[in-house]
Amino acid sequence: MSVIDHSVVTERDASGPEVADSSTAEQPHRRRRLKSLIGWLIVAALVLGGVFVAIQVGVRMPDQRGALDPESVGDSGAMALAQILEQQGVEVSVFRSRTEARAALDADTTLVMANPYTLSDEGIADLVEPAGRVVFLSSSTHLLNLFELGANATPDSAPVAAGCDAAEFADVGTIRPDRLFTPADGVEGCFGTDASAVLIDDDADATRILVEGARLFSNAYLADDGNAALGVALLGQTDRVVWYVPSFGDTDIEGETPDTLGSLTPGWVTPAILLLMIAGLAAALWRGQRFGPLVSETLPVTVRASETMHGRARLTAKAGDAVHASEAIRDGSRRRLARRLGLAVTATPEEIADAASDRLRIPRGSLHELLAGPLPADDPTLIDLARRLGELEQAVDASTLIERRDE
Question: Burial level of 88, CB count in 10 A (0-12/13-18/19+)?
């Protein structure tokens, strides 16, 4: 018995090392397959995430529109106010062509628009002539003087009530206006004592109302104070609203607007580019190597200009200094416009505005205020200023390309 047991034990001992060696050899291969599987799972997750982001970008394209745009869901847009008006039974029609907007007007329609900075005095007068009620949702000194509504006053951030006899403002409550005006003779001022936030010129032909609503009626601040009630009171007095959205592409100059790269590009190009970029980044992370050890560097160290620029930008954003940021944006835009228009670096804003207006055939007054007017004091107005400056540079670039092609 002992011999049989000994032989069995010996047999098992002899086979034991062989089994152990085979399992040890398979373990690195299994680890490699597991790592490869995990890597492909990460790449698949990143690609699916990229597809989701691209779809969201395509769905939220209206965010790229300008301030107080009734079709924009961005913080500076006015889609929320347009939807509230429609819920109240008011028909809201959006037009981006002044010719189409004018054709849709009649005496029982309210014309709503931001400051029409790309139209001449004759173009503005021709546009508002058929409307029985006109509401300007943003203001400028040129607009105040054109319709003789009043003058700018010192702003005050304190909440104010209506303080006038207009019946539609009875249930508005209080608002915090961003801009106040001194009413001219014959013009009624509401929401303020010495100065007013809303100017109403109610003559025999039509009613013209002006208010600085870039912040009041934006999607981000419409729910604050009585902003929504004020918007309904101003725009909901007629059954139909014609909302005109001004832009550099729609002026009162005869001729067709040249096509841009953005207008010629199909809508699916941007999501496809984003998807390819995300896939490339995922592949780089997948195939990339780890960073090596830190390398000591002798001082002094030369810092790139881009790093200094980003650092100052972050400090400005953290401090909320919209005035300083807008001055920097405007200064850079003036320098680039001067170079593109063939002017000296020391050219004044008035000279740049005159040259740009001659090149684009648009009114000088709007460009003077855009390049040298009052600086914005909050982020929505700063974003609107940057957008308008970008549109101006794109328009100048497009006109330069057309002139070179004609030559």
Answer: exposed
